[in-house]
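Table 4 source record.
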Amino acid sequence: MTIDQARFVDPLYTITEAADIVKVPPTTLTTWARGYVRRPPGRPEVRGSPIITSVGEPRRNQPLIPFVGLTEATVLAAVRGSGVPMQRIRPALRKLQEGLGLRHALAHKRLYTDGAELLYDFSERHPDEEAGRAARRLVVIRNRQCVFTEVIEEYLQGFQYSEDGYVELFRVPAYRHAQVVVDPTRSSGAPIFVTGGYRVEDLVGRFLAGESVAELREEFGIPTDQIEDAVRVASRRAA
């Protein structure tokens, strides 16, 4: 399996797995991957096209999302976390991708270096449109430069880029203390601890089976606060 195939082609995640990693409801991630059609009573039909990459046709419990799609979803989760409704930002995102002139623009380094400026310019050209106002809420002026808001910058700073400019791995934003990354070339893209490359779900599973944090720390060499953080995140998701 080549690196490009691991990042762009191979479906690694089900909708539920991808949603779990980026912290959005599965229904939300489904609309990002497959688009949507809404027919409100007495009003025109509303359609939304897919905005993250998926591979093949959806089948129950089958992987659908490649690593690049998961990366795109992580960016969109940051946008969602900023409080801007996705239906308002969709037109601005299309303009952003057109401006960057890249396929998978949300997973490219130029999003981090040029994206805020492009969104700000879009908002300045369309100040009276909903999409323009929504785009303006994603950027701020800091030290006379146009940059993304803190919540989006925090996500983007967790990305590591390869020589081709596309993300090759990223830090999972759900964790406060645990150093957890997603790397499509390791453990089939499952979240792993930076220390030792152990799968998070394996350590959490052993904790839930009765092993103590001290025992896991001794065996795997992962600090206590990181193990406890991983258990906390897993418990919150299960709730």
